[in-house]
Design a protein that fits this description.
With about 375 residues, this protein is mainly alpha-helical. About 40% of the residues lie in helices and about 10% in strands. It contains 12 helices and 7 strands. GO terms for molecular function: ubiquitin protein ligase activity; zinc ion binding.
């Protein structure tokens, strides 16, 4: 609750706090779930370099070691903790097929503390302006101190850049079933995907009378992959149906859309030539990665992870009487805090940093009185 108090104070500066505790707790829970999903799928203790080009992992860029104007570089989760503590880091969320750069030639004389024996460069890595803290077609940082428009950022699953919703060239759908997005630029680089978009993406538009401009785009999309397609090809069948959509703007895809992609031998060649063979892999998705992270965290919490939990480690070092004292203290504090906060909820009041401080000051005062009276718990 010291965190809650400081966050409230930070939100309002010197003014009186007007943020409800419910809002703060909901935000904390959302951030915790996101962190568990993103970080749970990556190792926080070991550099990922020995694993090669990791299928998907949480990545960071160090603005302190590799600032804009130099060569872009990315570091794994463990190196962000052990080698770049206190540095100015850009959180890149997750990226696919990347090998940790920490300590290679891009970092000058600096060596990785976790795995120093690295090649000079990782030639298989792909970089973008994200590695310098810039995003979207507007090439701006996030959060942007000069942007007063509230807007969410959405990641393209192909180029893995992040885009403001208002810069996607389409209306962002309010539907949880539309889980993946491909930006317009990537759609145009892989034009055969427009054929799939007309059938298995969100906001599908049926159009029997296409305009000249639209026909031109559609002919280009079909011509790029028509030749050599095998009989029974799902992509060929979609083209033959005559169903189409506007070939502009980002495309949001329905849940499990990857399972509907044709995987005949000819289509596999098309995916490979376009550099998007990962689309055939359902486990490539960020959702699959996050689910893996959540499962890992839940497994650790369920058992076998007590040695890694600071609280459990501390309790294990205490005798039974001391353990019971801690447990009783915790349960008492939890009950009293709940009763204390319920009064605010009943009266429709917000909880200020001063209210939180007052509660814990009362807790400390009661604890001192109990200690002076010689009160203790025994088994």
């Amino acid at each position: 609750f010291a965190l809650v108090s400081s966050r409230m104070a930070a939100n309002v500066g010197e003014e009186e706090a007007t943020v409800s505790l419910v809002d703060v707790l909901e935000e904390d829970e959302e951030l915790e779930n996101e962190a568990s999903a993103v970080l749970g799928g990556s190792d926080s203790e070991k550099c990922s370099y020995p694993e090669g080009y990791v299928k998907r992992q949480a990545l960071y860029a160090c603005n302190t070691c590799t600032p804009k104007g130099g060569e872009p570089a990315g570091i794994c989760l463990a190196c962000s903790y052990k080698c770049h503590e206190g540095h100015d880091l850009f959180e890149l969320y997750t990226k696919r097929n990347f090998r940790c750069d920490c300590g290679n030639d891009k970092f000058g004389e600096m060596e990785c503390k976790l795995f120093a024996d690295k090649e000079k460069v990782n030639s298989g890595n792909k970089y973008s302006h994200n590695f310098f803290g810039l995003y979207c077609t507007c090439d701006r940082p996030y959060p942007d101190p000069e942007d007063e428009v509230p807007d969410e950022m959405i990641q393209c699953i192909v180029c893995e850049d992040w885009f403001h919703g208002r810069h996607l060239g389409c209306v962002v759908p309010d539907c949880v079933e539309l889980q993946e997005m491909i930006c317009e630029s990537c759609m145009n680089k892989t034009p055969f995907l427009w054929n799939y978009a007309a059938h298995i993406a969100g906001n599908v538009v049926q159009d029997n009378g296409t305009s000249a401009c639209k026909r031109k785009h559609q002919e280009e999309a079909e011509g790029s992959s028509e030749e050599g397609l095998c009989s029974g090809c799902r992509l060929r069948e979609m083209k033959a149906s005559g169903r189409s959509r506007t070939l502009q703007g980002a495309v949001f895809w329905l849940s499990a859309w990857r399972t509907k992609l044709c995987t005949c031998s000819d289509c596999k060649v098309i995916y490979t030539d376009a550099g998007v063979s990962f689309l055939m892999d359902e486990m490539d998705t960020v959702l699959a990665y996050e689910n893996k992270g959540k499962s890992t965290m839940q497994a650790e919490q369920a058992g076998g992870a007590e040695g890694r939990d600071p609280l459990m480690s501390a309790l294990n070092n205490l005798n039974r009487v001391q353990q019971l004292e801690i447990i009783h203290e915790y349960n008492d504090m939890k009950t009293e805090l709940k009763d204390y906060l319920q009064r605010f909820a009943a009266e429709g009041k917000v909880v200020t940093p001063e209210d939180i401080r007052h509660f814990f000051e009362q807790q400390q005062s009661r604890k001192r009185r109990r200690a002076n009276a010689g009160q203790y718990y025994c088994s």
